[in-house]
Amino acid sequence: MRGGKRVTRERKLYPGYLMVEVEYNDRILYLFRETSGVGDFVGGGLHHPPAPMSPREVERMLGQSGEQVPGIVHAKPKFDRGDRVKVKDGTFQGMEGEVKDILEAKGLVRVELTIFGRPVPVELEYWQVDHV
Predict the structure, then answer these.
(1) Tell me, what DSSP letter sits at residue 126?
(2) Per-residue pLDDT tens listing for the chain (132 residues)
């Protein structure tokens, strides 16, 4: 909340990292090292190339960015609409509320909490809430 308004901010998943799929050779090495803002390859050295990411690491990384990747299983909520839940982590820890909506694509659950006598919808991750 800023200035009484709800503000949505995007955060970078891996700030400061550049992920590329290239054939590693001297030309690529020179290109990246001479690019301003690029430090070096992770895990590489002067005389040996960096190890490539495993397909599982790539799938996990793409799955976190919201893309649907085969082989990635997203957690299913253990509650339904109308269930009473208690927040077990975060800003609203210890508060109880009612599940109003389940946003499976985002892995979130919308819970209505009562704050200062008013109902307030809050989006939380599945692991942040538990049955009462």
Answers:
(1) G
(2) 678 888 887 877 777 787 888 888 888 888 888 888 777 778 777 777 888 888 888 887 777 655 554 544 556 678 889 999 999 888 899 999 999 998 887 778 999 999 999 999 999 888 889 988
Q: What is the pTM of this model?
A: 0.45
d(CA 126, CA 114): 19
Q: C-alpha angle with apex 62: 58 to 65, nearest 5 degrees?
A: 150
Q: Identify the residue whose tokens are 């339904």.
A: 80
With tokens 């909340």, the residue in question is: 1
Distances (CA, A) of 79 to 13, 92, 95, 105, 122: 28, 19, 17, 16, 16
**Which residues fall within 8 angstroms of residue 28, CB to CB, at 6 or more apart?**
22
In what helix (H) or strand (E) does residue 88 lie, and over which residues does it extend?
Answer: none
For 58, other C-beta atoms within 10 Å of its C-beta total 14
Task: Name residue, tokens 């819970």.
Answer: 111
Rounded Cα gap, residues 102 and 81, in angstroms? 7
